[in-house]
Specification:
three-stranded antiparallel beta sheet; 1 helix
Length: 139
């Protein structure tokens, strides 16, 4: 929650033809009412990605973790999707993966943001020892 905005992850949300692909919902608070602004989904959503596992908000950027997303490095490597607000519209601007990602790492399992930096966890990286990554956010 930031200001009058709430972002909620639904990592097991089903999309057409993609069970557990996940989604994130952006709500706006107005006095005693809560209004749905938009639903965010990954541009390359696939079944089992669990997009929405973690959420972080930094200014006009929402970061959404999809810890079970498959990448060219293998299954469940994980990814983070960045969305930027322009006016009242949220647009996917980047997909972030670990530079040393491997199958099963689950990068994007947890997220936090402060200022122009974000930190994420890959809790099963390095044979389940885990790893944390600090990622600068572009202005």
């Amino acid at each position: 929650m930031v200001g009058n905005m709430i972002v909620v992850g639904a990592r097991r949300a089903d999309l057409p033809g993609a069970n557990d692909a996940g989604a994130a919902y952006v709500f706006s608070l107005h006095g005693n009412s809560v209004d749905l602004v938009t639903r965010l989904i990954a541009g390359d959503a696939r079944a089992g990605d669990q997009f929405g596992q973690a959420i972080a908000v930094a200014g006009d950027v929402i970061a959404v973790g999809a810890n079970r997303a498959d990448t060219e490095e293998g299954a469940d490597t994980g990814a983070i999707y960045l969305f930027r607000r322009t006016g009242n519209r949220w647009t996917e601007i980047e997909k972030v993966t670990a530079s040393d990602g491997m199958a099963g790492d689950e990068f994007g399992y947890s997220l936090s943001a402060f200022g122009n930096r974000m930190v994420t966890g890959a809790h099963t990286a390095d044979a389940t020892a885990g790893a944390a990554y600090v990622i600068p956010l572009k202005s």
